[in-house]
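This week, work through this protein record:
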Amino acid sequence: MTETLIWIFAGLLAIGLYLSWTAGRLDRLHSRIDAARASLDAQLLRRASVAQELATAGVLDPAASIVLYQGAHTARQAEEEQREVAESELSEALRAVFGEVAQVEAVREAPGGEEAANELAASVRRVPMARRFHNDSVRAARALRRHRTVRWFRLAGHAPFPLAFEMDDEPPVALADRPGR
C-alpha cells in the first residue's frame, strides 16, 4: 500500500514539475516577445524619426520631402490598430524617394547629408531584423500555446494570444546595398 502511494506521489510530482517547467517556458517566451516588440518599436521609431529629419532638412526636392514627411509623420502618430499599415506606407515612401542611387548621392553631397544617409540606411536595414526576431518569438509562443497540456491546464493564464507584426519592410535598393555601413 505505501509503495503504491509513493509511486502515485512520484508521478504527481513529475507531472507537477513538467507543468511548472512548461509554464515557466511560456512565461519566458512571453517576456521575449515583449522585449522583441520593444526593440521593434524602437527601430520603427528611429526609422520614422530619421526619415522625418531628412524630409525637413532641405536636402530633398519639395515633392520628395512632402512624401517622406507625410509617411514618417503618419507612422509616428499611428494608433496601434493602424500601425502596420502606416509603417508599410512609410516603407513605400522611402522606396519612392530613394529608389535611385542618384537621389541618395544627392543627399550625401549636401551638408550633413552623409551622416543622415548613413543613419537612414542603418535604420532601414535594422527594421526587418527586429521584425523577424519579434515574429520568430511570436511563432514559438503560439506553437507552445497550441499544445493540449497548455490549454487544458490554462498555463498561459490571462496573457493575450501573441500576434505577429506584418508590414512591408522592403528597404529601398539604393539604401540597402551599402556595404560596410
Remarks:
- The CA atoms of residues 121 and 175 lie 5 Å apart.
